[in-house]
Amino acid sequence: IQLVLMGLFFYVHSVALIEDLPIEEEYHSLDEFYSAANAAYNQNAYNCWIAACIYVLTLLLSAQQFYVNSRVTAN
């Protein structure tokens, strides 16, 4: 849930998360900064959502393995 929410906050460009962006300290123009910040916000949002999907897939795989192992030991 945390990664999904963080992805949402990155996607809406939350100012509280600006320190977590991999952007340079100085830019020659304001447009360059905004462009780099927008790209970094979107990339971090996608990274959070991908990580959340990996966690869900791991949970599903673990649940499937638990189900298979519990059926084998019950017989």
Oligomer: single chain
Give unreliable regions as ranges.
none
In sequence order, what are the helices and strands, one letter per element? HH
How large is the share of residues in beta strands?
Answer: under 5%
Tell me the radius of gyration: 19 Å
Helix proportion range = over 70%
Counted up, domains total 1
Largest sheet: none
> What overall geometry do the principal axes of the alpha carbons give?
rod-shaped
- Find the count of extended strands (DSSP E, 2+ residues): 0
What is the terminal-to-terminal distance? 36 Å
Mean pLDDT: 97
Provide an overview of this structure:
The chain is an all-alpha fold and about 80 residues long. The chain has one domain (about 1-75). Helices cover about 75% and strands about 0% of the residues. It has helices at about 1-10, 30-75. It is rod-shaped. GO terms for molecular function: RNA endonuclease activity. It is a multi-pass membrane protein. Keywords: Membrane, Signal, Transmembrane, Transmembrane helix.
